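Researcher: Please translate sequence to structure tokens.
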Amino acid sequence: MKIKYAFLTVLGLALLVSVAQMFALPPYAGDIYALYRSGYFVELERGFGVIRDAFVETKMFGRPVSAWILLDDIGARHGMDIRVYNTSGLRVRAPGETGEAADSRVMRVLSDSEPSAYSEIRGGRYYSAVPVFMEDRCRFCHDSRGASRLAGVISFERDFDARVYYGAERVVIFGMLSAALCLLFFLTLRWEPGRRVKELFDK
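Model: Translation complete:
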């Protein structure tokens, strides 16, 4: 019976922890980003992709400078720091106007053989470096002789608040886990580990 009580104790503690995690307790979404990325951050990155596409379209079909004005307006309205970098890793403040070199995060995207968005949480802010891929229509302005897949990188940095979204995810995840632990707890209660041994000796 001791093994049964040991299992019940472990399951009971696990159930208490699981139920507690359904409420707004640590760890929060930003604390466990490396282990579990909340769908909230996926939505943020989807929004960054929309802004990137709007920038490219504005640059293609309007005056190029209008694309940078668009980014400045979006950044000012939504509290985002948006920066454009060319394939050399230099910040492009406006068409033909380059500034400081990019940091290691942007260079990581530029040097990757299979470029993809790089995201992280630093200092309570969400950062994402999003590649801008070269399309055939882009080569009208960019060097048509180059074989690079990238036209550049756009970086986004903003404050985040994942409480509502992450809270709903926690309820679903730990609700299912709690239900499974309850079932195991019930089955363990009905389990009689000494019964079969006793039946063997009774024979």
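Researcher: Any highlights?
Model: The first strand starts at residue 80 and ends at 85.
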